[in-house]
Amino acid sequence: MKNWSEFYRPRKLSEVIGQENAIEKLENYLRNFPLKKKAVILNGPPGTGKTTLAHVLAYDMEYELYELNASDMRNKSSLNERLKPVLEQKSLFESGKVILIDEVDGISGEDRGGVTELVSLIEESEYPIICTANDAWSSKLAPLRKKCEIIEMKEISPADVKKILASIIKKENAKINAELVNRIAMKSNGDLRSAINDLESASKIGETEVVDIDERNRSVDIFKTLKHIFQDKVSENMLSAFDNVDMPLDDVLLWVEENIPRVYSGKELVRAYERLGEADLFKGRIYHQQYWRFLVYENAFLSYGISEAKGKKEKTGFYKYSKPERILKIWLNNQKHAKRKTIAGKFSASTHVGEKRIMKEWKEVRNILKNSLVQKQLKLDAEEIEYLMKY
Ligand SMILES: Nc1ncnc2c1ncn2[C@@H]1O[C@H](COP(=O)(O)OP(=O)(O)OP(=O)(O)O)[C@@H](O)[C@H]1O
Ligand SMILES: [Mg+2]
Question: Closest-lying ligand to the alpha carbon of 134?
Fold first, then answer.
């Protein structure tokens, strides 16, 4: 199945939005190679077009692009292995070559090995080298910075995000509430990939009423807190780690679920999943029995429990945390469900059939409710009736 953010990845330079400054600098670097700084780092937050720009500009200037990744930098022999074909092959059309090293933050942090390999590659290379990074200013990349010009990629402005979303909606002929699109753009924090993912989720749910998505966007805090819990040495203070994150605990659970396998592996991952399961269990009880005091347990498993799953040591290294794609989907689904609940409430009040049973036997109930006389009697409002017709 096609994924919108991949499908609508820019193929031409003119389609790369909001990065004029970076484009100019990168173009300048390629034209004038080699300059004093022999490589560049495209530096910026996720989803702002770093990988895309490298590919598109290389294509536009008719360079052949060779992509290496952080794990190729493990040691000299693995690097040489990967580089050999690049350096030896005479380009078929005598075009230039450019090497892309995507996501250099991922270079192993513990020893300096990887960064050293990369620095010597830059020193020896006859070809321009483009690196990308989310945080070029981290201390482990200091030796690399000396060799590189840093080109900052900006977060995409909400207005530009909106333009791109609008053009996708048009091409897809999708029906999405305009106000919802607005909010997705406003709250994207300049991350186009996640904005497009949200848009795709919204389109699958269909036309919905406008909803408040503010809560989902405390990403800065949640990223920091997840890193704290997943990577720092476990401590009792962690029990209150999520208190500072302005997000419902059930959303926190989704963030934890999404990111655990990116950081943990093997036995620690198994343990973490067990604890996530416990948290989920309490979440269920809170819902079904309205036992709000269980929130404490859900919270404890998600914070201390998850942290302790990795043992007593800290976890160094770089991990890429990301926003769960399911959040918007789940949450829009709940919205849908919410209408069903208000209808069930009215039905229950006049028939004395329990709400739970109505929800369970929705199909039959729905058939009854399609009768406009019944609708009148129950005083269903226009939105409820519209919902009935659709679901
Ligand atoms: N400047 C942009 N103009 C148009 N589309 C963009 C732009 N930036 C990102 N996108 C969209 O977002 C998707 C992700 O972009 P890309 O992979 O280039 O981001 P990135 O900066 O490399 O992110 P990461 O740091 O996560 O690797 C693209 O497929 C494209 O659909
Ligand atoms: Mg990228």
Answer: 1
